[in-house]
Amino acid sequence: MILERHIKSTPSLELVQTFSSSVDGLAWLLKNDHIDVLFLDVEMPEMTGLELLRTLPHKPETILITSHKDFALQAFELQVADYLLKPVDFTRFTQAVLNTTKKLQPQTSAVQATNQPDELFVKVDNKIIKLNLNNICFIEARGDYVVINTDTKKHIVYTTMSAIDQKLPVDQFLRIHRSFIINLKKIELIEDDSVFMQEKYIPIGGSYQSKFYSRINKL
């Protein structure tokens, strides 16, 4: 198998297990959640790779393998590390591995600060749009969705607060309530344990107050 040869030819990788059945693979992964990188074929009998990935409660960094480009949007939704088309070229395979293993390496706060993203891609109405992080004022939880409030408009995105919180730069954004994440640069004033921005008072939850007040620069 080409993929197995590529893995065995890469010193930074150790081939732990292979499966030709998605059902067998799922059963094994549910019992072994310590895997760092999962190479997952989309087109499998019984259960597709995408269905398998959606089922996993703990998802490793995943590189999808497929014959079709049509799965790109679903790959984005599942936040996979990379997406390889068959036949898998070794050069492209190596690039995917390098990009993926970088995410597994611990980084110092100084390095993280210099590499903070300035944009975020989100799926809105079957389209993937780019948002400038500096234009985001606050994010509000609404059931199974979040509402991203920017300087000019609102975007409703199907995701969780925890998932989006992990994607935001920690030096710029802060969760101040179970239902709110704010851009610290957009605060206009603070009053009665609430922040005011975009003509709206946003409460600072009791369990979040200590962290919030320690983060703001005040006299």
UniProtKB/TrEMBL annotation:
Domain of life: Bacteria
InterPro entries xrefs: CheY-like_superfamily (IPR011006), LytR-like (IPR046947), LytTR_DNA-bd_dom (IPR007492), Sig_transdc_resp-reg_receiver (IPR001789)
Pfam families in UniProt: LytTR, Response_reg
Residues the record lists as 4-aspartylphosphate modifications: D41
Residue ranges of domain HTH LytTR-type in the record: 120-218
Response regulatory domain segment(s): 1-101
One MF term in the entry's GO annotations: phosphorelay response regulator activity
Keyword terms, alphabetized: Phosphoprotein
Protein name according to UniProt: LytTR family transcriptional regulator
Source organism per UniProt: Rufibacter tibetensis
